[in-house]
Write a structure and sequence with these properties.
Helix content: 40-55%
Distance between the termini: 54 Å
Strand order of the largest sheet: 26-27-29-30-31-32-33-34
Structural class: alpha+beta
Radius of gyration: 49 Å
Oligomer: single chain
Strand content: 15-25%
């Protein structure tokens, strides 16, 4: 158990140290490359070992064949020696040695006795030659089988007059055909040695090149030894002839097959050829032909005068010991699969690990990964900690300085704690510390060190005192209860008088040093505190505008703080270029600006300010920072009322309510505050509060609306997945109320991943109940999701996890994605299209004039906006728009889906116009996946 806990904690530490998923993706590629390299190296080593084993085995088998042939040569040497002694004797002595088996007279009188053994004769056979043939016949028959070779053996006379076969020649047609033996030079050489070396020193053998056998027509090789008479009396020594044995290609193949099989190898696995040292053609021993091989040809010594060329191919090596490759690669595949599975598990954990961009601590959701890995068997310490006087810092210096104090606080904790400790930002200035393999006293010592380092926070030549409070609790296994105890200890310390001796007597204005920060360091603009300390700026002013960069938070989290600062500075420059010089700009929050406009004298002037505010978000050519565009998205709210130091906060609240209404109308909208907006503003605040916890409380669920064909049978092979929010406080919240807030707060990223994964799970369950396997589910994707680095990987992993194919999914994006789409957007869409995922442009025609962008963005389908569909029966302009979009879809070769069809007449009209697919309440209202019934492989409508 201890070992398992250590391994689990080890991986958690690794995840904690990783900064970005991009870095892990590089490690993934390195891991796959390393695994593939290992497989290739191991298999290459196995190939080499098998090749060497094949050559070694072939050497053994070839040496066994060579032993057989050399034994036969030795037998022929013994025979030649005995014949040489016999030929030198008189007829009576020969008869005495051979007995009655030799009959010279009968042999002379009956030519048929020797002619059936004659292979070749250049003329009439002399009496002496007949005598020798009688000796040869009688001598051969007297030998036992073990003393003579079983292959074709014959005697060739020294004068080359005839060749005598020890076995009867059955084919007379070959009798008078000269054998292809170049033996005359050999006989001359042997005769010279007989005379020069006194006969008994002669041990010369004859080996031939490869030639065609006269009797069989097969390639053949020949081994010969001389027959020398009077070998012991060199004065009378002479060569009588030679004894030769032929080995045809068939004989050699049978020999090699026999001894290769005995060695445990298959001769057909080799390309074996026999080569004579005399030159000439090679003799193929095996029928195997290998055209290409990475392995060298090996020359193996055979017998005197011959070598064997052995050649093997990769296929032959693989089949030499196949079990070795199968077993080894099975182990490698198991190892590979285990490594990839481990990577996927870690990647799934890593995807859930989200960081707080400001403090570099884990977010609440990211911290859950660490929390879920905790075990009561491990020594964990839980510390609840927060920053004292955080609210006072915000109120006095502004939110920007408050954020910097939080970052300083987090950095101090990171530098003080151990590398294995985890810091989780729970919200605001509250943090949770998780310390593995730690005890109470060690944790207390670390927190005391952190307190000592947090005496002061230096900012813009101002020393701001800061401190922290904490509560320590040992982990018992019940995390919720232990956290509650740690929180209680935290608040006990926070309210202890000794923490800040004069705390009860200090007023909020006295808690922090003066002068208060009047300018935002990043932009040089006033802070709200600075505005409050200069009431003269409000004189004769009656219009306040609150500008919100809605994409500032999400883009800063994705692209970094430098991008966020540049985006805010660019927005300020647009404001100063658009409005008169006597405006006052204050930075209210990281993503919000307060603009005090000049006095309004007429109604037309207020309308002009509203138009100018609207132009802030209408940008044709966006500048770049690095590889990314400075993309402005946001809204503005205006409030008209005479400004005083006393009502500044109230007018700010009115402008905030107007801003909320503007955001509901869409990007770039500007709204002027009216009294009836106050109630809806309160609702917006509630939406913010409840939405931040809705995902972890599992308040979201998915529904599906069918997409049908308009060809008459209304077959449903596609459907759109929609998200619904059932809040216990607010009830059913429409998507148009909470999606925008989710995009502004960055919650759209985890919410979008939840939608994709659960949509794939619901579709897999629908198919398991019998729905067609090529069903396509549409999922709406926010532009913010497409800017995230891991979007495509999330989709691919969800498809894989639930056993779906790419063609089962359609990504719906709006026209807004076309305008200013970055490299990530196109990269994600191209990656998904490569695996079969289709791309649909939703609400086409309702937003940007984006025809110029269509050729740059990959898409497979158009969905025309419901406002044109609903008016097609009465409005000729709507019909013209639909006809134009239909022509456009045909030009691009993509289908068109009509949304919002409420009756049969509208469906028939659109079908007649050429629309093939439709969606609307007439065909089916959205409802949970489980409530759709399957009939004959189709969704029953």
């Amino acid at each position: 158990m201890l070992a398992l806990s250590f391994v689990k904690y080890h991986w958690v530490c690794i995840l904690h140290l990783m900064k970005t998923i991009n870095a892990f993706k590089i490690e993934k590629r390195a891991l796959i490359f390393s695994l593939l390299a290992i497989i290739l190296i191991v298999n290459a080593a196995l190939l080499l070992l098998s090749y060497l084993d094949m050559i070694r085995s072939a050497r053994f088998a070839i040496s066994d064949v060579a032993v057989v042939i050399n034994q036969n040569i030795e037998k022929n040497k013994n025979i030649s020696t005995a014949l040489g002694d016999l030929v030198a004797l008189s007829s009576n002595d020969i008869a005495g040695k051979l007995g009655s088996s030799v009959n010279f007279k009968e042999n002379e009188l009956d030519p048929s006795l020797y002619q059936k053994h004659i292979m070749f004769a250049s003329g009439e056979v002399s009496v002496n030659d007949r005598k020798i043939s009688a000796i040869l016949n009688s001598f051969w028959n007297s030998l036992s089988d073990e003393n003579k070779t079983s292959y074709w053996t014959y005697f060739f006379s020294a004068n080359l007059n005839y060749a005598y076969s020890f076995e009867a020649v059955k084919k007379n047609g070959y009798k008078f055909t000269s054998p292809h033996l170049a033996i005359s030079s050999y006989l001359d050489e042997v005769s010279r040695k007989v005379k020069a070396e006194k006969a008994f020193l002669v041990s010369e053998r004859l080996y031939s090149d490869v030639y065609t056998d006269s009797l069989t027509g097969l390639p053949v090789i020949t081994f010969s030894v001389p027959v020398i008479s009077n070998n012991l009396n060199y004065n009378k020594s002479s060569i009588e002839g030679i004894i030769s044995t032929d080995y045809t290609s068939k004989d050699l193949s049978e020999l090699f097959n026999k001894y290769f099989i005995q060695t445990g190898i298959t001769p057909s696995s080799y390309q074996l050829t026999l080569q004579s040292r005399r030159g000439g053609p090679d003799l193929a021993i095996t029928p195997t032909k290998i055209d290409y091989t990475p392995f060298p040809i090996v020359q193996i010594p055979f017998t005197a005068g011959f070598i064997i060329n052995a050649k093997v191919g990769v296929y032959n090596v693989l089949h030499h010991r196949p079990w070795r490759f199968v077993f080894t690669n099975l182990i490698l595949l198991i190892f590979f699969a285990s490594s990839i599975n481990a990577y996927r598990n870690i990647m799934n954990m890593l995807k859930r690990l989200s960081y707080d961009s400001l403090t570099r601590a884990f977010s609440r959701e990211g911290g859950e990964v660490i929390i879920n890995s905790m075990s009561a068997h491990e020594s964990w310490i839980i510390v609840a900690v927060d920053l004292d006087l955080f609210k006072d810092i915000n109120d006095t210096y502004g939110h920007h300085v408050g954020d910097l104090s939080l970052a300083y606080f987090s950095d101090t904790l990171i530098r003080t704690l151990r590398a294995s400790d985890t810091i989780i930002r729970m919200g605001g200035d509250e943090f949770l510390l998780l310390m593995p393999w730690c005890n109470y006293s060690s944790a207390s010592a670390l927190m005391q060190q952190a307190q000592k380092k947090l005496k002061h926070f230096q900012y813009d030549s101002i020393t701001i005192p800061i401190s922290c409070s904490y509560g320590i609790q040992e982990f018992t296994g019940d995390f919720a209860k232990d956290c509650q105890i740690a929180d209680e200890k935290l608040y006990v310390m926070k309210n202890r008088p000794t923490r800040l001796p004069s705390r009860e007597k200090v007023t909020p204005a006295e808690k922090l040093p003066h002068p208060m920060l009047e300018k935002d360091v990043e932009t040089g603009s006033l802070t709200i505190s600075g505005l409050r300390h200069h009431p003269e700026y409000l004189d004769n002013r009656s219009v306040l505008m609150l500008v919100h960069l809605s994409n500032h938070s999400s883009l800063t989290n994705l692209l970094g703080q430098d991008y966020g600062r540049s985006l805010m500075k660019y927005m300020i420059s647009r404001i100063t270029d658009t409005f008169p010089e006597d405006i006052i700009i204050c930075r209210e929050r990281m993503d919000k600006l307060v603009v005090i406009l000049p006095p309004v004298k007429t109604v037309e002037q207020l309308s002009l300010w509203k138009q100018k505010a609207h132009s802030l978000f209408s940008i044709k050519d966006m500048p770049n920072i690095g590889q990314h565009e400075l993309r402005i998205e946001g809204n503005a709210g205006l409030a008209e009322e005479a400004l005083t130091p006393e009502n500044l906060d109230e007018v700010l609240r009115y402008a905030g309510i107007a801003l909320h209404h503007a955001r509901r109308e869409g990007n770039g909208k500007v709204t002027l505050f009216t009294p009836d907006m106050h109630a809806s503003g309160l609702l917006h605040i509630q939406l913010h509060e409840q939405l931040s916890h809705a995902l972890e409380r599992e308040e979201f669920y998915l529904v599906m609306q069918p997409i049908v064909g308009l060809d008459g049978n209304t077959e449903c092979r596609e459907g759109e997945c929609l998200v619904r929010w059932e809040s216990p406080v607010l009830g059913n919240v429409p998507p148009d109320q909470f999606i925008t807030i989710a995009e502004d707060t960055g919650l759209i990223i985890p919410l979008g991943e939840w939608i994709i994964n659960n949509a794939c799970r619901e579709l897999a369950a629908l198919m398991a109940r019998g729905n067609c396997e090529d069903f396509k589910l549409h999922i709406n994707i926010s532009p913010i999701q497409l800017q995230a680095n891991e979007f495509a990987e999330v989709v691919v992993e969800s498809l894989r996890q639930h056993g779906l194919q790419g063609y089962n999914l359609c990504i719906e994006i709006t026209e807004g994605v076309l305008v200013g789409s970055g490299t990530n957007t196109c990269r994600h869409l191209n990656v998904l299209r490569e695996i079969g995922v289709t791309i649909s442009l939703d609400d086409f025609g309702s937003g940007y004039s984006s025809l110029s962008y269509l050729h740059t963005l990959p898409f497979d389908q158009l969905k025309i906006d419901r406002q044109f569909v609903s008016g097609v029966m009465e409005d000729s302009r709507s019909e013209s728009v639909i006809n134009s979009v239909l022509s456009l879809s045909k030009s691009f070769g993509v289908p068109l889906v009509a949304e919002g069809i409420e009756d049969q007449e509208t469906g028939d009209k659109l079908h007649a116009m050429g629309c093939l697919l439709a969606q609307g309440y007439h065909y089916g209202r959205p409802k949970p996946f489980s409530e759709w019934h399957i009939d004959n492989g189709q969704i029953a409508l």
